[in-house]
Amino acid sequence: MLAAEPKSCGISVRHGKASCGAHGGQGDLPPAIWDKVKTHPCYSVEAHHHYARMHVAVAPACNMQCNYCNRKYDCANESRPGVTSEKLTPEQAAKKVLAVASRIPQMTVLGIAGPGDPLANPDKTFRTFELVAKAAPDIKLCLSTNGLALPDHVDAIARLNIEHVTITINMLDPEIGAQIYPWIFYNHKRYSGVEAAKILTSRQLSGLEMLSARGILCKVNSVMIPGINERHLVEVNKAVKSRGAFLHNIMPLIAAPEHGTMFGLKGRRVPRTSELKALQDACEGEMNMMRHCRQCRADAVGLLGEDRSAEFTKEKIVTMTVNYDSEARKANQAGIEAERRARIMPRQEDVGEHAGGTSDIKVLIAVATKGAGLVNEHFGHAKEFQVYEVSQSGAKFVDHRRVGHYCQGGHGAPDDLAAIIRSINDCHAVFVARIGGRPRGELHKAGIEPVDQYAHEFIETSAIAWFSSYLKKVKSGEIQHVDRGDGAIRQDPMMSVA
Amino acid sequence: MAYKIVASQCTACGACEFECPNGAVNLKRDVYVIDPKTCTECEGHFGTPQCAAVCPVPNTCVPA
Ligand code: SF4
Ligand code: SF4
Ligand code: SF4
Hints:
In chain A, strands 10-9-8-5-4-3-1-11 form an 8-stranded mixed beta sheet, covered by helices on one side. Chain A has helices at about 30-35, 90-105, 120-135, 150-160, 175-180, 195-215, 235-240, 260-265, 275-285, 315-320, 325-340, 350-355, 415-425, 435-445, 460-475; strands at about 50-55, 65, 105-110, 140-145, 165-170, 185, 190, 215-225, 245-250, 290, 300-305, 365, 385-390, 395-400, 430, 450. Chain A has 2 domains: about 10-320, TIM Barrel; about 345-475, Nucleotidyltransferase, domain 5. Chain A has 15 helices and 16 strands. One iron/sulfur cluster binds near residues 24, 49 and 51 of chain B.
């Protein structure tokens, strides 16, 4: 059983465990599991720098109501509320997958996540998977569900060779559940309140156990809702771990009044970055935590953090010719694997050596990157910053912050710059490939050091090198170490950026 | 004896189509409609009309 595995490094690039990440992230994962996650951007934080995923929106119906969801838009379990995906038939979806696969060879994973619940639309969901499995057997299939209908479909999931399932579990305590779910539709009846929550929990947990027993990798998503379930999620974490979940992904509630969700309208507070990180850290002793989920929309296409769905709209797919060349895809992916092997990770010794003496200082560094684990993006072009925590025990990916484009044809709008600075306000430095004069000045003013000396170098080694010199300066008294404030989680929907 | 869908409120999610025991709900030119001749208000199948029970929008599947 997966639960018996030691906490391994499929997800955290941590250097306490020397081999993790260093050899492409396998760490101490058993080969059979590594094989399943090594090219999956959501299951391996290391893979997410290299491989892309896509979602197809074939599942509009749902079997329950969540207070963070507005039915006009996509399911907020994974997607951000406020954006609607283009709904497709299974046939259109399959053609789209082939079109994307032949144009983006590093796309290795197809997920069905909505816009409603895939298992409330079992015919459309499984038909899509069947079509894709036939035409493009090398693509991994995955599915995200609220879990209510899951036990009924475990056999179909196993039969179709769906390797990864995500279940959104926000509570075990029915009193808490009653504050999150107004009703569920189960066994031809509508249930509400505590009764609904009890049914949901038992369905979710038995679904999870059934999948684990069949060796299907399960990720559990939880939405952190301040004032409702934030403390309780530690218990959820223990419960799902003991039932074989491979990965736990705690995501921040996204709720603005304009999304029209119950939580948005009632003005429920969203988590601060420090609260989210503290909760993820508290759960990490227990199991692998996913911190790189981008809460993608139900029709997202591309690397995590990018969305190329606008290149593949329904209209455009109809006219595209699809030439699925599995050999070309293999060759491309072999190239990526070579790139991954070449990626150099700092060794534990380097950290101590550079720093001289021990220190318990920890800092966050924001990194502008286009992928491949390199500092390779211009500050003004970054659509997101990846956040690394650096201390003497190493450099670790802990978060990402989505930002608006600052640079629009050379002259950025001043407001955007302020918003970007707010979103990385908890960081001591920002690593970029290049940066203009004005943002450089504003960052200095805000107390964040813009660093371009590591352009096109590996993120972790650069972070360690910078941190060592930072520590030296602190020790010599040249600078004083001060704690930073909180970052801001962006609330507006991710727009496609093609 | 039949139900109908209030078209102005329907989000076209299709949940009711899937649940109807009589296949009375159909998509007609991008809107869902209930065929009054086929709809039995679920009598003999279920205690409550399934379309109304599953529909996420209040007061959208209602007696005609
Ligand atoms: S929503 Fe999260 S789990 Fe799903 S593809 Fe995006 S990053 Fe992966
Ligand atoms: S009331 Fe029952 S039979 Fe009539 S449309 Fe609704 S689900 Fe179908
Ligand atoms: S369940 Fe309600 S919203 Fe969905 S299609 Fe039927 S009537 Fe429309």
